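Please fill in the sequence for the structure shown.

STRUCTURE ENCODING:
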């Protein structure tokens, strides 16, 4: 069961340069949870995703609203998914002109937009493969499959203490509709890798992947607050 969360995140290049600061905010509202994952980039760009879901017996997407805008995103997008009706609206911008695509998709109960981190915390590290549906905004919305496979364990350290995380690989499967999707998305997206700490309270540790089709590989990592030194305490 998911609950109230506030996590501090950082987006870095693969060379280690910090390019954005992020917050993961999740609150309970009645029988629903509202999760907001937002990144503020140093160049003024914003990646903002708000997801509403339920978790009675399984995770069930209710709505997902994902906005990317600013210099870091060559093709700004605004994607709204209403899972109950199947309506998906994609607003894209090219040369300052807005283009709106609204489609009705046959969304399955396993559609995972905005829920991947929650799902990964619930996948056993010994599970051979898990598949979920995902709406790709390309900019015409398409429904694809994500294949999730554990790829072994890797150590990491926190405050000098050694821990072990399971590395999951997420691959977009174009499947039998490759002839339709490939010309739209350009090419096969690169795999995404996510590290999850197991145990009694599983937790997200790190992710490496593209924020948008054709974009560079960036990594999302947990970060810790830094306190201003106190003159009175001498710290």
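FILLED IN BY: designer on duty
SEQUENCE:
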């Amino acid at each position: 069961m998911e609950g109230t969360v506030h996590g501090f995140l950082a987006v870095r290049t693969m060379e280690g340069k910090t390019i954005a600061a992020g917050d993961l905010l999740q609150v309970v509202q009645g029988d629903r949870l509202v999760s907001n994952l937002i990144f503020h980039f140093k160049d003024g760009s914003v990646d903002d995703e708000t997801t509403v879901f339920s978790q009675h017996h399984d995770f069930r997407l209710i709505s997902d609203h994902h906005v990317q805008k600013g210099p870091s995103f060559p093709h700004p997008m605004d994607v709204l998914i209403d899972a109950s009706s199947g309506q998906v609206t994609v607003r894209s911008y090219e040369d300052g002109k807005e283009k709106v695509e609204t489609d009705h998709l046959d969304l399955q109960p396993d559609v995972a937009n905005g829920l991947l981190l929650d799902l990964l915390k619930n996948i056993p590290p010994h599970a051979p493969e898990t598949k979920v549906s995902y709406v790709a905004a390309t900019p015409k919305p398409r429904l694809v499959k994500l294949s999730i496979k554990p790829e072994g364990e890797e150590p990491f350290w926190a405050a000098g203490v050694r821990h072990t995380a399971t590395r999951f690989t997420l691959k977009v499967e174009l499947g039998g509709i490759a002839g339709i999707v490939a010309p739209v998305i350009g090419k096969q997206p690169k795999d995404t890798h996510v590290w999850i700490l197991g145990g009694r309270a599983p937790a997200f540790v790190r992710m490496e992947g593209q924020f948008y089709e054709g974009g560079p590989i960036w990594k999302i990592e947990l970060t810790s607050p830094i306190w201003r030194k106190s003159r009175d305490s001498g710290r």
